[in-house]
Amino acid sequence: MDRIDSSLIALRRIIRTTELFGREIRQATGVTPAQFRVLQIISESGFVTAKTISMRMQVSQGTVTSLVDKLVRDGLALRQKSSEDRRQIHILLTNAGRETLVDAPDPLQQRFVRKFRAMEDWEQAMLVANLERVATMLDAEDLDASPVLATGEIRPAGA
Amino acid sequence: MDRIDSSLIALRRIIRTTELFGREIRQATGVTPAQFRVLQIISESGFVTAKTISMRMQVSQGTVTSLVDKLVRDGLALRQKSSEDRRQIHILLTNAGRETLVDAPDPLQQRFVRKFRAMEDWEQAMLVANLERVATMLDAEDLDASPVLATGEIRPAGA
DNA sequence: GACAAAACTTCAACAGTCAAAGCAAAATTA
DNA sequence: TAATTTTGCTTTGACTGTTGAAGTTTTGTC
Q1: A73 contact to strand C (CB, 7 A limit)
Q2: Right CATH number for B31-104 from 3.20.20.30, 2.60.120.10, 3.30.420.40, 1.10.10.10?
Q3: How far is the C-alpha of A123 from the C-alpha of A125, rounded, in Å?
Q4: What is the mean pLDDT of chain A?
């Protein structure tokens, strides 16, 4: 088998793992990956507007509304009208929401980090360099990449 | 920024690219990524059973039925009762289905392959090794078998 | 021949997603 | 200041992907 095949297969394995992980996270937290990601985005800033979430996730506002609806329904987040700009709505976490994040740290990421830490210094450096190279090869330059592995699922745009 | 963050960001970029690519493929072919994958799986073997697709995609049979329904509806695939085992149904491509595959070559993959080919021999070898390593690091399989000494909390990045 | 297993489909129920339309609050402009 | 446009968000309607459970048909087995 040639190297091109090997590399493509490895890449596919990486991607597939993250796909399958969506199911894992749901099992562990009772929250879907998309909802989990919203939770993470909120928690990064304390509170956040729907617009922000929409842009960070590259998803329409309607989608954000529906995601936040579910988080609110399940008592993980709250909506709160902004007093400065009444068009805006601040979305923030409840204690239950914070707990969900704390109690369910990203196992995929943990798995990776744990193994990464076990590597020799030079191995770590090499791995980082190669990952970055691959990312660049795929032309993923100008993306908002936060150091969080929790991925949304690969989903088609609806009709 | 430490190496852990760098590596997670790079990984995230890779994953994000493939996510966005799903939209690209839909745009280019009029077929959703899931349906496209089914098309690819069929074409690898000429014809295929629902069970096979289900296993290959790690998805329930009901899902496969619904995906194939759509491909048939759109004239890209056909169902054909097996004569050996009448429980089985062979799924195969129509000409339109084959065309969809041909007309929509994988730009993400091409992109990668082109750049990969341009690399030095030793660089290619190193890249493959690192990708495979990452794939293994993310795989859940060896979780039980891995000699994990660190029982302590692993910080969820970002939070 | 009765019964279990296998391969599919059907059905009901969700989640995620979008586009388009609607509403309310700012911002801009006349 | 009044009218108009823009901005932020929700609602609605529609569609895909997905599952699990129940049902159908065909095989296989005792």
Answers
A1: no
A2: 1.10.10.10
A3: 5
A4: 82
